[in-house]
From TrEMBL:
GTP binds at residues 123-130, 205-209, 269-272. GO terms for biological process: SRP-dependent cotranslational protein targeting to membrane. InterPro entries: AAA+_ATPase (IPR003593), P-loop_NTPase (IPR027417), Signal_recog_particl_SRP54_hlx (IPR013822), SR_rcpt_FtsY (IPR004390), SRP/SRP_N (IPR036225), SRP54_GTPase_dom (IPR000897), SRP54_N_sf (IPR042101). Residues 290-303 form the SRP54-type proteins GTP-binding domain. It comes from Aureitalea marina. It catalyses: GTP + H2O = GDP + phosphate + H(+). This is Signal recognition particle receptor FtsY.
Length: 317
């Protein structure tokens, strides 16, 4: 491992540790109470644990899955001490994350022969979509890729201006039209411009209003259809951005967006400053869509490529 990689990893770990601080301390405080005065994992402890997981925003279904797996271990091993619970939870959670997140670092890679690689970013207003696009543009640019941004969230002028701010900050070109123009037309122009410039990656911002599922579906389908006139297999990625600090709301949004379009990647933002970090585990398990990025702060560097081992390590160490 190079020195750079080692330094980088250490910094990444520190940021991740800090980002998960609140979720972690709240979880272990609850877990401590759940096993207080108990030396073995029995029905009471399992009931308490269920409550801990649900109130940590892991979600009911994933919680039941974890509890069931621990019950199986209790049945098999006959005796399970509460001091082993941490380790067992860690293994079960790592196992769940492995089922939906393949590979080590799960960034959106740009495969050879896929140029431009088009990432359509969806999610409701305020979840951190624009910020995530800016951070992502910065990461690709730092790797030497040519990036183009498309401001297809034409519903609000502020959304276009905000993306422009990120384009300026990261020094990447942006394609924009006036507020109220057709998002599909902006997406089309963006792809054409990207093809002309021989760009490697295009990141398209969309409005994603959840006023009505049919409208959302129609809008996203139209954007896709129009983009495919320029790049037949676009978008290769549909990245759904969810605000981790909204806990169960994030589940609801994931449900709506996955019903409206084919989401194949998730970014969970604002994990810093929230105790709801368990949402990452539940969402990736329930939707079987890999979490590719997590947002752990407002700064340009605060978008981490999600790594299930690092996540579990940071949470349990
Ligand atoms: N603490 C923290 N704040 C974040 C993170 N990601 C985004 N934010 C903040 O969340 C707020 C909303 O982010 P935006 O990127 O504007 O969200 P958006 O989804 O594009 O919303 P609209 O611009 O309203 O469409 C901003 O103040 C961001 O700085 C994160 O990972 N951590």
């Amino acid at each position: 491992m190079s020195v750079f990689k080692r330094i980088f990893s250490k910094e990444k770990k520190q940021t991740l540790d800090k980002g998960l601080e609140k979720s972690k301390s709240s979880f272990f405080e609850k877990l401590g109470k759940a096993v207080a005065g108990k030396s073995k994992v029995d029905d009471d402890v399992l009931d308490n644990l269920e409550e801990v997981l649900v109130t940590s925003d892991v979600g009911v279904n994933t919680t039941l899955k974890i509890i069931e797996r621990i019950e199986e271990r209790v049945a098999r091993d006959k005796y399970l001490g509460t001091e082993e619970l941490n380790q067992i939870l860690r293994e079960e959670i790592a196992g769940l994350l492995s089922e939906s997140n393949t590979g080590e670092d799960s960034e959106i890679a740009l495969p050879e022969g896929s140029r431009p690689h088009v990432i359509m970013v969806v999610g409701v207003n305020g979840v951190g979509k624009t910020t995530t696009i800016g951070k992502l543009a910065n990461q690709y640019k730092a790797k030497g890729y040519k990036v183009v941004l498309g401001a297809a969230d034409t519903f609000r002028a502020a959304a276009i201006d905000q993306l422009q701010v990120w384009a300026d900050r990261t020094d990447v070109p942006i394609v924009r039209q006036d507020m109220g123009s057709d998002p599909a037309s902006v997406a089309f122009d963006t792809l054409q411009s990207a093809v002309n410039q021989q760009a490697d990656v295009v990141i398209i911002d969309t409005a994603g209003r959840l006023h009505n599922k049919v409208n959302l579906m129609n809008e996203l389908t139209k954007i896709k259809r129009v983009m495919q006139k320029v790049v037949p297999d676009a978008p290769q990625e549909v990245l759904l951005v969810l605000d981790g600090s909204t806990g169960q709301n994030a589940f609801e949004q994931a449900k709506q967006f996955t019903a409206a379009t084919e989401v194949n990647a998730l970014a969970v933002t604002k994990l810093d400053g929230t105790a709801k970090g368990g949402v990452v585990i539940g969402i990736s398990d329930q939707f079987q869509i890999p979490v590719k990025y997590i947002g752990v702060g407002e700064g340009i560097e605060d978008l981490q490529v999600f790594n299930k081992h690092e996540f579990v390590d940071s949470f349990f160490n």
